[in-house]
Amino acid sequence: MFDNLYQKTITGLILCSVACCFAFSSCDDFLDVESERVAKEDQQWETLEDTRAALMGVYGLVRAALAENNTHWICGDLRAGDFSVTSRKDLQSVVDNDLKDPYSLLKDISNWRRFYSAINAASIFIEKAPRTLEKDRSYSEQNLRYDIAQARVLRAFTYFYMVRIWGDVPLITYSYDNGSFPEIARTDAEVVLSFVKNELKSAIKMLPFELGTSSNLYYGRQGSDWRGILLNKLSAYAILAHVSAWEGNYADVETYTTYIMDNATRINARYVSVADLTSTGGIFSTYSDWRSSRLVSFVFPFRDSESTQCGHLEQLTLAAPMVQKSIPDMYISNNLLHSIFNEVDDQRYGIDPKSGKYYTNYINNTESQYPVFSKVKVIQDGEPRNNDYAVFGSVILFSRLEDIVLLRAEALCANNRPEEALEHLNTIREARGLKVVSYRKDFENNKERVIQAVFNERRRELMGEGWRWYDLIREQKLLKKDPALEELIIKGGIYWPVDEDIFINSLISQNSYWQ
Amino acid sequence: MLFYACQDYESVVSYTPVTEDHYEGTLLEFLSDKSADRSGHTFDSMLIIIDAIPGLREELEKEDGYFTLFAVPDECFERSFKQLNAYRANKNLGGEVSLDDLLVEPFTVEDTIINRGDRIDTLITRYNYDYRAQLDSLFCRYIFTGMNDTKKILGEDDHSLSVESLKNRYQMNMACHFLPSSGIVSGGTMAFKFSDMNESKLSERWETTDVIQHDIYAHNAVIHIITEQHTFGFDKFIYYFKNRGNEYEKE
Fold it and tell me: Pick from A333, A351, A369: which is nearest to B87 by CB?
């Protein structure tokens, strides 16, 4: 009987342990099973669709880097610029140049990781895309050349953008997609910019004015469909012109801007009127009739469900009645508006001779405590059925023809040809309803005053397009009139601090000004 | 969608909540009393105009009168003149104009066209100018008879009340609404808007300014103070007075 019991116990125990074995071990295998849903590396770079997805991915990452936390406007327009802040303390810190204040916004903006995501994606593309050429016969050599050229322009653009924000940044030109993760130190801003220029110059040779023709489609579309959406030859020139201006190399700026202006018709880039600049279906709207006038832009088409809340000036500047928000985050005060727009005929913000009222192209609710800066106002697709769902479809516009014309005027002044500069300044002035100015009568043959006038015009024309801060620095370098800003330039205070999370890389230390 | 509702957390409403206030004195005493709580504003320009326009002070001192006044801080007048003078400088319309220039007695200018052989003899046209009346008309758009306090406005449909001005029956609009706050519609503080209706029922055509302190009950009036960002006369000031001093030239 005891034997029986003993046997039963043993059997029970064995059964138990076997059960336990199953119970505890069964999970292990889950970890070893590879997911069928993950697109793996060896499945990539096989077809035309892969390269298209990867290239659009690079565009998306560059766009994200600029859009995240509204970097483009916070760095470009808010910092020491014309905007006042209503109640957000983090934004106020940017205005005051207290960029190390403990706000998550400032921390996130000072982290350059998002820019390196874009750079890495571009590098991977440049390295891996040629593989597709061998595997997919529909992927032509020309297509590959266009793709790689765009990836190189995007990478160069990203570096240029970073240099403007941080000065010296690590120059990484290889994807390190081999498992290694080396620490890389900062490279001098000059070296980075010379890399940027070389990249742009070689990409320019590869890029056409228009991607694709009706008989030779580029990713299934013809050239006119890609206008204002992907980068072309003149986009690369526009970036190159700005890189040279940032370096102070105005002889090159003049060459590049001249080239862009001479060839603008080849991509159908035109001067845009105030109405088409500021209307909801105007140049800021992705599929606008004016999109070919966007030389460099990153789009958020609502139609393709890409519109967002963040990444648009509207999120900071619009308020009731346009969106369901009581007061804007930032605005331009009434008094400042009148000192910036000091000529009453200005169609951007002046008096309409017909009605005797102020134009509402740039500003709405002028009488209110917080005037609404409404130059950019693409809610949803620009024609929302209601304004309850406030996502925005406006593009991040880096450069358009007016920007290039004014940059050329700036370069001509710097190259001691102020009278020619005035021709270009007058082009813009006339388009905005202002009277033509002459070197002798209006500027008393004073070159410095012409430079000032060019920058004042940029301030008015490109307001809210992420230029003011960088313009202020170039203006200071040419005119040397603000000792406080001069000191900032010398001490490196014009750059942003680097976020502490970056210091995991032991070779990187804080910018000297922010230490 | 659930999460979007929370977005307004970011925009902290910064309107100062203002409580009901009583002032021991009349409307005119309030305007000149520097010790009263007036959100740090002065109203000397209003007083000058009240004194300069014949009959206005008497009207406001009437024993049985009760008014609603939108008090316009001096900064608003200053801004209007600054903009007017900038406009005149831009358009070469002459030197700077000040408040005194607009408070002159009405006058007439004769324009003579000498006969050049037509049938008509020498033609004399008379132009009558009365800047003071124009200023009076603009000014009275801030004054209304009767009590229009927030309680009354909130009792109206849509919390919006259109009222005729003290003189010339010009329509202005007062509207109150509660701002959204913390994702709750109408959960925030109240915003009080004062609009020039531009002779239109369509609110898109109105010019609107903000009231920063409302419902100050004086003996013969309820007073609301307008933001100093306002421009006196809304956007009509330049249009009315741009040609001052150039009366001989036809507009």
Answer: A351
Does residue A2 lie within any of the structural domains? Answer: no
**Integer Cα distance of A282 and A376 in angstroms:** 9
Tell me the C-alpha distance between A14 and A356, whole Å: 97
Q: Count of domains in chain A?
A: 3
B93–chain A Cβ distance below 8 A for any pair: no
- Best CA proximity match to B241, nearest among B70, B98, B55: B98
CA distance A359 to A374: 11
Q: How far is C-alpha B245 from the geometric centre of its chain's CA atoms? A: 24
Residue B111 has pLDDT above 80, yes or no: no
Q: Which of residues 3-32 of B touch A (CB under 8 A)?
A: 4, 7-8, 10-15
Of A157, A144, A152, A146, whose CA–CA distance to A123 is shortest? Answer: A152
Is the pTM of the predicted complex or chain greater than 0.90? Answer: no
What per-residue confidence (pLDDT) applies to B116? 66
Domain extent, residue A207, equals 44-262
pLDDT in tens, A286-302: 999 999 999 999 999 99
pLDDT of the residue at A213: 86
Minimal C-alpha gap between A368 and chain B (Å): 4
> Which of B:208-237 have CB within 8 Å of A?
208-210, 212, 227, 229-231, 234-236
A428 and A459 fall within a common domain: yes
Range name among A193-197, A468-472, B84-88, B202-206 with the lowest pLDDT average: B202-206
Query: HSE on the CB side for A212, CA within 13 Å?
Result: 17
CA distance A39 to A314: 36
| Number of other residues whose CB lies within 10 A of the CB of residue A448 | 14
Asked whether residue A47 carries a pLDDT value surpassing 50, the answer given is: yes
pLDDT at B1 over 80: no
Q: Which residues contact A46 (CB under 8 A, 6 or more apart)?
A: A132, A135, A136
Closest CA to A364 of B174, B235, B82, B181: B235
Joined together, the tokens standing for residue A186 give: 């900062």
Q: Cβ distance B72 to B45 under 8 Å? A: yes
pLDDT band at A3 (very low <50, low <70, confident <90, very high): low
Exposure class string for A128-167: b at 16+ Cβ within 10 A, else e? bbeebeeebeebeeebbebbbbbbbbbbbbbbbbbbbbbb
Rounded Cα distance between A375 and A386, Å, is 19
Same domain membership, residue A453 and residue A477: yes
Longest dimension (CA), chain A: 125
Answer yes or no: do A206 and A346 share one domain.
Answer: no
Interface of B with A in 110-169 (CB under 8 A): none
Chain B residues in contact with A366 (beta carbon < 8 A): 207, 231, 235
B11·A87 Cβ contact <8 A: yes
Inter-chain CB proximity A365 and B208 less than 8 Å: yes
Report chain A's C-alpha Rg in angstroms: 27
Distances from the Cα of A436 to the Cα of A430, A439, A441, angstroms = 7, 10, 11
CB A114 within 8 A of CB A62: no
Q: pLDDT tens digits for A261-282?
A: 999 999 999 999 999 999 998 9
- A200 with A188: CB under 8 angstroms? no
Q: Where are the beta strands (DSSP E) in A69-203?
A: 84-85
CATH 2.30.180.10 fits B11-103+131-241, yes or no: yes
Contact partners, residue A237, CB within 8 Å, separation at least 6: A204, A256, A259, A260
Sign of CA dihedral B113, B119, B121, B127: negative
Rounded-to-integer distance, Cα B138 and Cα B46, Å: 12
Same domain for A404 and A388, yes or no, is no
